[in-house]
């Protein structure tokens, strides 16, 4: 007895004409009944397999829907956070734009002041250059001498004091320093004769 029988599902016309030829009608009906029962069994098994596949696909679909819902919720939270961050960044950008406009206005004002000061500096420098050139032209040449007797001033001669004058008298001064008029004595030294004339006192 064979468990597996290979059957041609699309038999030829000759096979159809000869397979049941010569059999009694009850045998033909019995064969047809068994063939229909096997076909019904195959259809039932196919339906069970399809139902199993459908239930498995449904469970996978529900699981995927749950995962998709979780992902959507997380994405919504991320999008909400990103929208808040974008709003804050927009506020910061607006603040930076305002500061940039203020700094640009200040820079333009400083540039205008700088240009004004630069113009004043250039004008003052040119004026100083012109004044310096005029003063150099008015200054006398190096070889020029003023010969005007009225403007020329001469310092009066001064007498220098006499030092180390020697007296002719031995009893007079040995060295004397006189002033310009010669009236007062600045240094005075006694002669050896006067020193000898003094009495000698012996102290006991």
UniProtKB/TrEMBL annotation:
<protein>
    <submittedName>
        <fullName>Cyclin B1 interacting protein 1, E3 ubiquitin protein ligase</fullName>
    </submittedName>
</protein>
<dbReference type="GO" id="GO:0061630">
    <property type="term" value="F:ubiquitin protein ligase activity"/>
</dbReference>
<dbReference type="GO" id="GO:0007131">
    <property type="term" value="P:reciprocal meiotic recombination"/>
</dbReference>
<keyword id="KW-0175">Coiled coil</keyword>
<dbReference type="InterPro" id="IPR042448">
    <property type="entry name" value="CCNB1IP1"/>
</dbReference>
<dbReference type="GO" id="GO:0000795">
    <property type="term" value="C:synaptonemal complex"/>
</dbReference>
<feature type="coiled-coil region">
    <location>
        <begin position="54"/>
        <end position="113"/>
    </location>
</feature>
